[in-house]
Amino acid sequence: MIETKGLRKSYPAKRGRTVVDAVRGIDLDVRAGEIFGFLGPNGAGKTTTLRMLATLIRPDGGAALIAGADLLADPAGVRRRIGYVAQGGGTADAVTGREELVLQARMYGSRKAEARQRAADAVEAFDLAEFADRPCSTYSGGQRRRIDIALGVIHAPEVLFLDEPTVGLDPVSRGQVWAEIRRLRTGGMTVVVTTHYLDEADALCDRVAIVDHGRVVVEGTPEALKREISGDVVLLGLAAGQAGPAADALRGQPSLHRLEPGEEGLRLYLDDGAAAIPQLLSVLNGAGIVPGTVQLQRPSLDDVFLARTGRSIEQS
Amino acid sequence: MKLARDTWLVLQRQVLLMWRTPIWIVVGITQPVFYLLLFAPLLKKVLAPMGATSYAEAYQIYVPGLLAVLCIFGGLYTGFSLLGELKAGIIERSRVTPVSRLALLLGRALREMLGLVVQAVIIMLVALPFGLRVEPLSLLLAFVLLALLALMASALSYGIALALPNDAAMAPVVNTVAQPIGLLSGVLLPLALAPVWLQEVAKWNPFYWAVEGMRALFSGHPGDRVVWQGLLIVVVMTTAAVFCSARLFSARIR
């Protein structure tokens, strides 16, 4: 549904002649009818990539085919086939949600009566009746977001782009937005979201591209990506200065794949964490080290990011 | 035609937004009326050297200038609303639709023009009791001129808003542009009162010709040379301003 090759974009830096490479060559293959996620820390180039695909910024190089339309040669054709919802939405305060829906349909070329019908259908489908006839200035964050998404798909596009769809939402609204996105996929739409929330990428997306410094670091289903980080993660809470000696003591343990310094101790990657813990503790005891805490975790997408980049998404 | 349809669509929405923000309308109406009621009475004596012996004659000289300044300055400040809409993501939401890019600009400029022309009509109505009378044909021509001035100033203002790298620079830049244009077009007092060197400088200001044309129309000389000169200059400048802003708009905001 979306194929990109070497998509690039750089910006002149504020002062001087240096150039900031926001996106350094992105190759993607998004399949029809899936929820595809760009996961990465702020500034990784997710939004720039999304805005390029939505025809809002012109790429410096590369190529993309979106729902059969060529991004560079036929941006108008792309616009007809896609919907885009910016992070900040884009409704005017003084008009109602329904008025915005009608206008949006008309901007996509519908005649007046057809636009009204489309707006009415959207109010029904997205369950907006409660607030659709109030001015947008009165909406809560969640209500605003639902209107934004309804606006983005008023013309029944084949592809929907959502930039950080749940930023700043309370957990209930967040769940509602997820449910809407899943409903759109069930209807056959391809949805591309950017997010820096690990749990969102994990729970919502069928496939994820982890992005860092303007490049795709790795791509796959959340399950497959996490499976790459074999086994479990054990977190050892250690007193200051003990991380080094503990790492030395543990190296060479047969069950241990990898070992990373964590926030307050060590992160150990092992095949079967629960079975390995007693052995690890006795090794540490032998070296005179007693961990303050021991935690057993399943690997998260952050562990994937950490393994690939040496940094944690939440810290970068 | 798609451009006309899309422009109409944008214009309708912009008018609705203006209508829903009544404070805007109140300010837009009271300001020029104050100018008319509180400033104009000073004029009879000041304008006496130009042959104004009655209020009606003083208003004939003053009101066309007031209307022109209203349209020029009102238009020049409209870029601020574009900045607001850019910030709110409203423009971006429109840009991902196949709506005509030129229509996004034209619809907004036409809304501004409409608002300013309505204000001008109100001023004309308030000036009626003071004895201001203008022939229908001259009045029509004068309003064509005013509408073009408003359109040009709005387009110019959008151009400034789009060209500036920083939103905060908008106010000082617009003020700096507006002040000499206003003073050198003799909007509040005719430049006929000015020393010769100032009159020579003013001749390079296209708005000066527009204001002179307006005055000729208001004093019942629609056949005067300055009328068609003013119209011609304003038509050319409006076309240029709209063209440049549209180019900037589609370059900055694809």
TrEMBL record, chain A:
All residue ranges annotated as the ABC transporter domain in the record: 2-238
Membrane topology classification: Peripheral membrane protein
GO terms under cellular component: plasma membrane
Protein's cellular compartments: Cell membrane
Keywords from the UniProt entry: Antibiotic resistance, ATP-binding, Cell membrane, Membrane, Nucleotide-binding, Translocase, Transport
A GO term, aspect molecular function: ATP hydrolysis activity
UniProt xrefs under NCBIfam families: drrA (TIGR01188)
PANTHER family: ABC TRANSPORTER ATP-BINDING PROTEIN, DOXORUBICIN RESISTANCE ATP-BINDING PROTEIN DRRA
Protein's name according to its UniProt entry: ABC transporter
TrEMBL record, chain B:
Subcellular location: Cell membrane; Membrane
GO cellular component term of the entry, any: ATP-binding cassette (ABC) transporter complex
GO molecular function, one term: ABC-type transporter activity
GO biological process, one term: response to antibiotic
ABC transmembrane type-2 domain residues: 23-252
Coiled-coil segments: none
Topology in membrane: Multi-pass membrane protein
UniProt entry keywords in alphabetical sequence: Antibiotic resistance, Cell membrane, Membrane, Transmembrane, Transmembrane helix, Transport
Keyword NAD: no
Lineage: superkingdom: Bacteria
Parts of the chain that traverse the membrane: 21-41, 61-83, 113-132, 138-164, 176-198, 226-249
Pfam family, one: ABC2_membrane
InterPro entries tied to this protein: ABC2_TM (IPR013525), ABC2_TM_bact-type (IPR047817), ABC_2_transport (IPR000412), Nod_factor_ABC_transporter (IPR051784)
Similarity comment: family membership: Belongs to the ABC-2 integral membrane protein family.
Protein name, entry field: Transport permease protein
Species of origin: Kitasatospora phosalacinea
